[in-house]
């Protein structure tokens, strides 16, 4: 059998894309992961501020399915993750920060970072993907219909061909990329995908000059889901940071309401609300992170969506949740399960090359 000349391309190097790529690589497929970020990892994000290290996307993950448990057991064995707290629903943290886990997962893979895919076009070999190199460090994010692509000033432009594509960006971004390439989805599928929704999240990253008042094990969660400050994590108590550094998360409702306000205004309010956790310590530095797509609010009813077009094209990610998943919430686990299921599906439907 002739080896296919075009790779499978995965858009997005978050946990879904990485798990999909590993399944395909283990099956002997040539696979390339493209991610617009400075490194992969997506919402498994860790930032360094001086000698402080702060997780500022997912703080932990839980394990409910036997399939994900088998993966996590391997990660624990390798020293990549360890239990943080909780029983029987153990919350796992990644050693060195959540992003480090995705770096380990990406090690054997061919991954291109700072590559923003802007369009996926139908092509005789399968698909043609346009991409631009992400040379801008900051692309303004607004909570409305404007996508970063609309205001983006591209650096180097190029395209790559693929025999199959898996899109793992948040669904609205994936739909944007498909629309830009005039790749039309069947209307019923498009309607279901357009219904998928995520909550935004505003997070303050705060480095302190002394210990915080966050209780053991380094995490405080509000009793009410609409409290403006929803979660406060002390990254040094968590074992991630060399110095006291808090991540302060606003709830979805508050984040949506204030998303388009200037940084200073958001920080002024968030820091005032979080002040009890600073216990008199001074703020050394504070930065804001805007997650336009944070937790899934309305999921897609299935582990992935096959577009059913002229060549394989599958959408996956944390919003793709099996109807029998009792949580129906987008999580690290749902993203990993979706990525693996999408890849296994692709292996079944890929045309045989002769
Ligand atoms: C603040 C916050 C708190 C959370 N807390 C928890 C928690 O406690 N427990 C839990 O289990 N989960 C939590 N989550 C959710 C969890 O992080 C996500 O469910 C999971 O990481 C999603 O993985 P993914 O691969 O589906 O998507 P992502 O991680 O979003 O990956 C998608 C990737 O696609 C890339 N991309 C997007 N567009 C393009 C493009 N045009 N070209 C190239 N690349 C592109 C992005 O850069 C990104 O890396 C939290 C998330 C946030 C933001």
UniProtKB/TrEMBL annotation:
GO molecular function annotations of the record: oxidoreductase activity
Highest taxon listed in the record's lineage: Bacteria
InterPro entries in UniProt: Amino_oxidase, FAD/NAD-bd_sf
Protein name: Protoporphyrinogen oxidase
Organism per entry: Aneurinibacillus soli
């Amino acid at each position: 059998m002739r080896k296919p000349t075009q790779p499978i391309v995965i858009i997005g190097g978050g946990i879904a894309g990485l798990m999909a790529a590993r399944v395909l690589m283990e099956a002997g497929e040539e696979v390339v992961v493209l991610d617009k970020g400075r490194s992969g990892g997506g919402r498994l994000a860790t930032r360094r501020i001086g000698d402080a290290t702060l997780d500022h996307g997912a703080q932990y993950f839980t394990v409910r399915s036997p399939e994900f448990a088998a993966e996590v057991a391997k990660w624990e064995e390798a020293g990549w993750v360890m239990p943080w707290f909780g029983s029987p629903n153990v919350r796992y943290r990644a050693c060195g920060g959540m992003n480090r886990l995705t770096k380990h997962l990406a090690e054997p893979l061919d991954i291109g970072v700072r590559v923003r895919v802007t369009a996926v076009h139908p092509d005789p070999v399968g698909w043609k993907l346009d991409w631009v190199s992400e040379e801008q460090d900051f692309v303004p994010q607004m909570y409305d219909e404007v996508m970063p692509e609309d205001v983006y000033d591209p650096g180097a432009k190029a395209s790559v061909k693929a025999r199959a594509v898996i899109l793992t960006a948040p669904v609205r971004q994936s739909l944007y990329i498909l629309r830009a390439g005039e790749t039309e989805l069947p209307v019923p599928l498009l309607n279901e995908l357009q219904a998928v929704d995520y909550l935004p999240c505003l997070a303050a990253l705060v480095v302190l000059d002394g210990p915080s008042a966050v209780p053991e094990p380094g995490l405080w969660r509000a009793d009410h889901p609409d409290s403006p400050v929803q979660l406060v994590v002390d990254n040094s108590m968590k074992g991630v940071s060399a110095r006291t550094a808090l991540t302060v998360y606003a709830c979805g409702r508050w984040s949506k309401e204030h998303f388009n306000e200037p940084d200073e205004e958001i920080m002024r309010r968030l820091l005032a609300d979080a002040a009890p956790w600073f216990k008199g310590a001074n703020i050394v530095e504070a930065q804001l992170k805007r997650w336009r797509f944070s937790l899934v609010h309305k999921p897609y009813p299935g582990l992935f969506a096959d577009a059913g077009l002229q060549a394989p094209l599958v959408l996956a990610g944390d919003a793709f949740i099996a109807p029998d998943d009792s949580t129906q919430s987008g999580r690290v686990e749902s993203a990993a399960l979706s990525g693996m299921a999408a890849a296994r599906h692709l292996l079944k439907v890929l045309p045989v090359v002769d």
